[in-house]
Amino acid sequence: MIKAILFDLDGTLIDSTDLILNSFNYVLKTYLKKEVPEDRIRSLFGRPLHYQMALFGGEKQADELVKRYREHNLASHKEYLKPIDGAKETLEILKKRGYKLGLVTSKKEDAARLGMQICQIETYFDVFVFSDDVKIHKPEPEPVLCALRKLNLRPQEAVYVGDSTYDIICGQRAGVKTVGVGYTPVGREALLAVKPDHWIEDIKELLEIYNEEL
To answer: What CATH code is assigned to 17-80?
Structure first.
């Protein structure tokens, strides 16, 4: 029986695509004098920011680029961030049905909490796993396993909902069921190719899949 539903944040519960692309373009153009195709940036959604910046600017510059990105990104949250339609209502109903809810994200805690507060979803979660909480990141299983430890649950008792291949592979390696979202900003074909257990076009469809009163 599924007792817990774990969620990725960006692209799954909050629409941060414009925010992320704007922040990346600002850093790449300002500090690296580079123009990177949008689809290349989107393909890295879900990976830790340091990893992304090291790819574009090299390991030596990565920390400084991350710092500049985060400064710009945090200052732009209210301008660019939007909730995913139906996310708040879905979390509220799942919570009322008795499911434990967890957030598993590659974002640092301050940025993740700011996004949740803007979209008014922070209070629904029982556990949080931020990038600071683990040393090994998606697509490796440690972030999801960390959430399971906090909830004292076994893999077969949880599901992970995400919008990137890294989310789905992370969940699969952790042994949990997975749900891919059709509104992903990173490409439907790539997400379908990693074969999530369930596929939804609207987040409210989770209420049809996990409809038991626990």
So the answer is: 1.10.150
Cα 172 to Cα 106: distance, rounded to the nearest angstrom:
17
Convert the pLDDT of each residue in 119-143 to its tens digit: 999 999 999 999 999 999 999 999 9
- Exposure letters 42-66 (e unless 16+ CB within 10 A, then b): bebbbbbbbebbbebbeeeebeebb
pLDDT, one tens digit per residue, over 163-201 is: 999 999 999 999 999 999 999 888 899 999 999 999 999
The domain spans of the chain are: 4-15+82-209, 17-80
Query: What is the distance in angstroms between the CA of the first residue and the CA of the last residue of the chain?
Result: 10
- Catalytic positions, written as ranges: 8
Superfamily (CATH H level) for 4-15+82-209: HAD superfamily/HAD-like (3.40.50.1000)
What does the alpha-carbon distance between residue 181 and residue 161 come to, in Å, rounded to a whole number?
7
pLDDT digits (tens, 9 = 90+) for 23-34: 999 999 999 998
Rounded to an integer, what distance in angstroms lies between the CA atom of residue 214 and that of residue 97? 6
Q: Is 51 strand, coil or helix?
A: helix
Q: Are strands 100-104 and 14-15 parallel, antiparallel or unpaired?
A: unpaired
